[in-house]
Design goal:
Pfam families: Methyltransf_12. InterPro entries: Methyltransf_12, SAM-dependent_MTases_sf. This is Methyltransferase type 12 domain-containing protein. The protein has a seven-stranded mixed β-sheet with strand order 3-2-1-4-5-7-6. Strand 4, helix 10 and strand 5 form a beta-alpha-beta unit. It is about 45% helix and about 10% strand. The protein has twelve helices and seven strands.
Amino acid sequence: MAISSSSTKSVTVPAFLLISAAAAAFVLFLLLTSLAPAPPCSCAHSSTTTTVTTTTTTSLNPTPVSPTSDDLSWLRSQLALNSLGDPPSSPAAWRALRKGINPRTRAEQLDDLRRFKGISHYEDVDAANHTALPCPGELLVEEHHSNYGEPWAGGRDVFEFLATKSNLASADYVLEIGCGTLRVGQHFIRYLNPGRFHCLERDELSLMAALRYELPSQGLLYKRPLIVKGEDMDFSRFGSGISYDLIYASAVFLHMPDKLVWVGLERLAGKLKPQKGRIFVSHNIKFCSRLGGEECTRRLAELGLEYVGKQTHDSLLFNHYEIWFEFRRAKA
């Protein structure tokens, strides 16, 4: 009995320990499993989710087009924080705020540039050796910013409206007819990938301001926009295999003969991307309305175009809105 009892004890105690150890090992296994990183899943559901996420990420543009309500609220809070109330309402009040170093009007700046060439400048044999892109004084004081019927800042409004309405992506192609001094175009150039902004412009002074001042001063030379001088609606120099996502003419067609506008539309219709592509014309479409509604619709249909509708867009900075007329490729 002693041996049997002893044997029983010697067997029973290790069994208990073994069971406890096994239980502890099992709990430890579960804990380590829960903490370990999950292996890649090759199931169809995960694959689909990954694909959708990747597509969504790569299709996003790098920066938003228009300010949000939160952006505007933040800016108003900063104005209040710095006690910047209503702006001055008189010339005298504005002059009282001009406390910069040696402040100058545009006219005074231009006079200084002509007389003194700037505060420090090279002369004689070295005069032309230190400026990579010599620029006329009239451009340096931005006189061309006043060559339009509305403030220079209105170009941002036009960009935001057109980019939003056309669902513009940075890889899209944009053609502006009459980009002038890039009041609008500079925003498209900055937003789009290099080489994706094209323009046909007739005015030599505007072209000079765009190429000699705006692109260098805005740091946009690397964007390589294609800006071509011409006034005959000849788009052949932009290439034959390009489909535009957006074509627009801001206050341009109303200054052209109707016949030339229709020539341009005929040449552009085939360059407009099906489904997505849009043509926007600002102010009025008298080239169309002078024909009468039915005749205009018929001529557009012959070109493979159709009228979408009339829209307006409010300015962000001043009490102004623009009227835009939208066209697209006719559905097959």
